[in-house]
Amino acid sequence: MEIDPAVSFEDTQTAFSYKSDRALWKANIVFTLVNHPVVSALATGAARVALALRLPVKGLIRATVFEHFCGGETIEESNSTVSMLAGFHVGTILDYSVEGEKTEAGFDKTTGEILRTVNLAKGNADIPFCVFKVTGIGDSSLLEKLQSNEKLTPADHAANAQLKSRVEHICQQAAANEVRVLIDAEESWLQDPIDKMADDMMRKYNTARAIVFNTYQMYRSDMLENLRNDLHDAVKNNYFLGVKLVRGAYMEKEAERAARLGYPNPIHPDKAETDNAFNKALQFCLDNKQRISLMCGSHNEYSNKLLTVLMEKHSIRPEDKRIWFAQLLGMSDHISFNLARSGFNVAKYVPYGPIESVMPYLIRRAQENTSVAGQSSRELSLIRKERQRRKGAA
Q1: Against a cut of 0.85, is the pTM above it?
Q2: What average pLDDT score do residues 58-64 get?
Q3: For residues 113 and 34, what is the distance between their CA atoms, to the nearest angstrom?
Q4: DSSP symbols for 240-308
Q5: What CATH number is given for 72-362 in this structure?
Q6: Domain extents for the chain?
Q7: Using alpha carbons only, what angle is made at residue 340 by residues 77 and 6, rounded to the nearest 5 degrees?
Q8: Which residues of 170-208 are buried (b: 16+ CB within 10 A; e: fewer)?
Q9: What is the pLDDT of residues 3-19, one digit of tens each?
């Protein structure tokens, strides 16, 4: 489809208007680092070791990658980021990004923190969504057992009941507070029981509008068909389908596991196929706009522009609350802020949590930027373009 250039992603003045000269200088350092895979791997590895040995590096991490990609260590520390983004008509999705909890007490603590974000979002237009990962509130090994139909032990049954109770509590609280909640996607060998829980929650809480959103990783070759089947279920059972589209986050892990265990890789063979599936899913969602609410979670310029064109084609106004665009804090500001300036609904994922606990998230961000062809180079070129513009305007 031909893309109308009405929304331009080349306007760096708008993209980085929220960053001071010093913050832009820091961003230049961060993306220069992640633009070199070997250097990035060495730096993230050194940071992990230094934190494990309790060396005094937290200050350096906080002042660089943590400050760039995260809102703070607590909700309270993140409030300034929420306010800053709201000043540019960009919403915040507070994402408690602590990973690696393995105890029921840890899962309960994470659930409590997610519920805090739900309560904060009540009636707060600056926080239009909340989010959680099921592996943050339940054991991944349990999900794997459920998916492979392994026989569960009494302890497994108890843990599964607890997990379902946590998911229910979050979704019930979100519905009571009229706050939309996103359920993040996981690896393919864990995803089926997550999808089942998400479907159950949508049937229960999406009867008037989409409150619960499930995430569709479009790099999976079966995902378009899954999306069609879910719409069929929504029509059959008279509820609204909440859809968050992403390309996917576990490509290397998926390929490695498939090769090791000898089953077909569930991921599309190349990026072009993934892009095609993602863009077809956008069209499918808008063709079924009476039943589907959509979040386009993408850092791809073409897909974001395509959605603006599809919205115009379907006579959907930019501010229609059924359609949202979302990117990660510290990435693709040229997309987020230019869309917001044009009146579209935009939100940034704003991770927060103790620095040591958020390190796995930060390492994944670095790996994603170095593995996605051109991602960090594009970020870097735009940052440098804006720095040059400011020097010329001085």
Answers
A1: yes
A2: 77
A3: 30
A4: PEEEEEE--S-HHHHHHHHHHHTS---B-SSHHHHHHHHHHHHHHHHHTTTTEEEEEE---HHHHHHHH
A5: 3.20.20.220
A6: 72-362
A7: 155
A8: bbebbbebebbbbbbbbbbbbbebbbebbbebbeebbee
A9: 455 688 999 999 999 99
